[in-house]
Amino acid sequence: MQMKVTVDILVLGAGWTSTFLTDLCQERGVSYATTTRSGRDSTIKFTFDPASDEMEPYRVLPDAEVVLITFPIVQRGASERLVKLYTDSHRREGLTTKFIQLGSTGMWDGPRLAAKLGGPSQVNQHQWYDRHSPYTSTPRSDAEDELLALSPTFPTTILNLAGLWGGTRQPRNWVARVAPTKEVLESKGSLHLIHGIDIARAILAIHNDFSKAQGQRWILTDGRVYDWWDLASAWGSAPSAPTKSAQEAERHAIGSPSSPASAIGLSSQQHKATEVEEDRGPQPAWVRELMQDHGIRGLPRDVQSLGRALDSRDFWLTFGLNPWMTLFS
């Protein structure tokens, strides 16, 4: 009879996060296995049914030191069901599997959640929030609390992630969608981010010393509070069609007597600057107008103007790490 292989990390739900995690695991010699609903790309075919007590689907999964749950769980009792069904189907002497659930920091954004859930409107609190701050109860946060309550019998921890970026997820490309009008941009405050590489580093840090994380909830950001006005001013929105290179623009401005630059007496440098400004969309101009309207002298704005600010220092200090990737890296 072939013995079942034990992996360091079992990822339930291979997706965007797992692309960064598996690369780092390979680099560091950490063994892993991943699942998808379809079993694509050499993953294990597995579908979590939150209402089923059937153990058989779990038997195809390998033994693991750590199980990483990447998908949200929102049904009451489902978190406990997953942990117990996996554990009961993988009983082996000397193996105590630990569980990490990836969550969201949206639970500390009361006004947005109230609007989303159809509850009474809430005033945005202009203040700092850390992992111990009160949060708005949602089905997802309740399921996370249920998971944490299983410790210490079943070692568990929660990583509440800020906005995900890296790879195909580039914040620079979000401006047009986030701020399509001046009125919408006016309402935008803070943005918190975490890069996929730093998520992977955080997961492996917990794997290496789970006792530091056990039974606790953590906020994970890159340690910065970005201002949407600042980003919209610096980036603008991406052009809807490919633009000419600076060299082509210069040739057009100088070489054609009927070009717009020559027609109005602009220098080639002035013409290029005009093209660049137009290519960045209207957001930079809106920001200047909003700063004038609200008496904002410089960017980024302070927390009193931004709304919520997330403090993720606890995680990085506890595990002796620093974020690698920020928008300024």
UniProtKB/TrEMBL annotation:
Gene3D superfamilies: NAD(P)-binding Rossmann-like Domain (3.40.50.720). Residues 272-281 have a biased composition (Basic and acidic residues). Residues 239-283 are annotated as: Disordered. Residues 1-21 form the signal peptide. Residues 254-268 have a biased composition (Low complexity). Keywords: Signal. This is NAD(P)-binding domain-containing protein. The lineage of its organism: Eukaryota, Fungi, Dikarya, Basidiomycota, Agaricomycotina.
